[in-house]
């Protein structure tokens, strides 16, 4: 009799707990929808965190990491989904890892993630990220391949944003590739500055207001003129 009573109490507690979890799940799903409607990022993060505790889901976990990434909370994004190069990751998870690792200065780890994304779905935008990271990590030959792919596959309506000024600005993606090409050429052969200047000049032909390209061209021209100035 005592065993039956204990079992009955256990079942009552189990059902009560299940009902409580269902109620919490319903509550936070409604809360999540409302926070999205209000564009309340902190509220969305709060809701998704609770939902992942109540009913763990890889999709929700990836979404939470993506929200962190979009809010420039890159460390939190990576703490949510990890930094491993997992072939079973969703495209969203890989993108979060790539962008957040790059933002945190982990170029080689970011490069692995961007390479995985590019293999799944090649695009000119991904080629740009790859070329940029490869130049930073010294793989100029690899960068050259990505740059040529990008120049060939960039459409006229594709833009790339730069943030080195107080006011961000956009330039044609193809212009951004020509700027990278100039930097890569200079890294490969510092004695042939003219080739690098010519490539950056192509970028400025596509967008004369490309501030970063203009600064790079000025820097290269000053290096070219430096030996003559020294002799005087």
Helical fraction equals over 70%
Oligomer: single chain
Strand content: under 5%
* Coarse morphology: elongated
| SSE pattern | HHHHHHHHEEHHH
Architecture of the domain at 122-232 in CATH?
Alpha Horseshoe
Distance between the termini: 107 Å
- Treating each run of at least 4 consecutive H or I residues as one helix, how many helices? 11
Instruction: Report the radius of gyration as a whole number of Å.
Output: 26 Å
CATH class of the domain at 122-232, named Mainly Alpha
Strand line-up across the major sheet = 1-2
CATH topology of the domain at 122-232: Serine Threonine Protein Phosphatase 5, Tetratricopeptide repeat
Number of strands: 2
Average pLDDT rating: 88
Note poorly predicted spans: 5-16
Class inferred from helices and paired strands: mainly alpha
Sheet of most strands:
2 strands, antiparallel
Question: Would you kindly provide a written description of the structure presented here, covering whatever features stand out?
Answer:
With 232 residues, the chain is mainly alpha-helical. The protein has a domain at 122-232: Serine Threonine Protein Phosphatase 5, Tetratricopeptide repeat. Helices cover 76% and strands 3% of the residues. The chain contains 11 helices and 2 strands, in the order H-H-H-H-H-H-H-H-E-E-H-H-H. Strands 1-2 form a two-stranded antiparallel sheet. Helix 1 (2-37) runs antiparallel to helix 2 (41-54). The chain is elongated.
